[in-house]
Specification:
Layout (H helix, E strand, L loop, with lengths): L1 H56 L44 E5 L5 E6 L3 E4 L6 E2 L3 E2 L10 E7 L10 E11 L4 H4 L18 E5 L2 E11 L3 E12 L2 E12 L12 H12 L3 E2 L4 H13 L4
Antiparallel strand pairs: 1-2, 2-12, 3-6, 4-5, 6-7, 7-11, 8-9, 9-10, 10-11
């Protein structure tokens, strides 16, 4: 009996020991699973809290419209429709046209036309006879009478301040009583030769026109005048072009300088280079003959 009891007791003890071991193992295993579950749960909870915080920080959508205090409806107010307006025409500023520096003069009776600077003064007809102040009229230089003044262009008196410049001009005359051979000569010629002998006219080419040219010089105690004469034969008439320069004083006192004569005559020669002679009708020629007899007209 004792032996059997011991055996049973031993088996019971072993069995209890085994059961305790299994139970400890099971408890130990569940504890790890619970730990993992708890860690996972905390992780998920952390993610949810982070997402909730981000959603709170995101900007709220803008309201489409705001209802008025007296309105019972929360319907957003619609934006007003754009009002169609007629397109206004583009305003363009008118740019003032710049006037040309040169002006064209044209005379139907003589057929003469030329360009001259706008700032120069033009006279025509009977008033076109040029003068040197203190020295009188500038004579025509035809070998036969019958010359008619056509036009004169004068430089402004203030063209060369601080110099002895007094006046300068470009003048056109025409004479239909002179032949082509006579047109090549002048009533008086240049006498500025050192030995006092007259200087023959010289042939020159102005633009595309061949001309005869001579010059003259006259002076008083305080005034001087220099003229250049050019002749050309066209349209059955002798055309005379006179370039004149007048000075005052001898530029010896008061800081007054001599005007550059070459520069002045160069300006006048530019006008001469633009001269054109157009064909003239016989009626206009007859009318010009009357003008010559009566001493010219405007």
């Amino acid at each position: 009996m004792a032996t059997i009891w011991k055996s049973t007791t031993q088996r019971s003890s072993n069995q209890a020991t085994n059961n305790n071991s299994i139970s400890g193992t099971t408890l130990s295993s569940w504890s790890r699973q619970q730990k993992l579950a708890m860690i996972a749960g905390f992780a998920i909870l952390g993610l949810l809290l982070a997402g909730s915080a981000c959603s709170k920080q995101s900007p709220k959508p803008a309201l489409v419209g705001v209802s008025s205090p007296g309105s019972s409806s929360a319907t957003p107010t619609a934006a007003p429709a754009p009002i169609a307006t007629a397109a206004s025409p583009a305003v363009t500023k008118k740019t003032p046209k710049k006037r040309p520096a040169n002006v064209t003069y044209s005379d139907a009776n003589s057929g003469v036309s030329f360009l001259y600077p706008r700032k120069f003064a033009l006279t025509s007809g009977s008033k076109a006879q040029p003068q040197f102040v203190g020295l009188g009229d500038v004579p025509m230089n035809f070998v036969e009478p019958g010359g008619v003044a056509v036009a004169t262009v004068a430089l402004p008196a203030s063209s060369y301040p601080g110099t002895d410049f007094a006046s300068a001009f470009f003048n056109v005359n025409v004479n239909r009583s002179v032949s082509e051979q006579e047109c090549a000569h002048f009533a008086f010629v240049d006498t500025r030769n050192a030995d006092g002998e007259p200087v023959d006219a010289e042939k020159v080419k102005i633009g595309s026109t061949d001309m005869e040219m001579t010059s003259n010089f006259s002076a008083s105690a305080i005034k001087q005048a220099e003229t250049q004469y050019y002749h050309s034969y066209e349209n059955g008439a002798c055309y005379e072009y006179v370039l004149g320069l007048g000075t005052e004083g001898f530029a010896t006192e008061g800081g007054i300088e001599h005007v550059n004569r070459d520069e002045v005559f160069a300006k006048l020669q530019k006008i001469l280079a633009t001269v054109k002679i157009n064909a003239v009708e016989q009626e206009q020629i007859a009318d010009q003959g009357v003008t010559s007899i009566t001493g010219g007209k405007e």
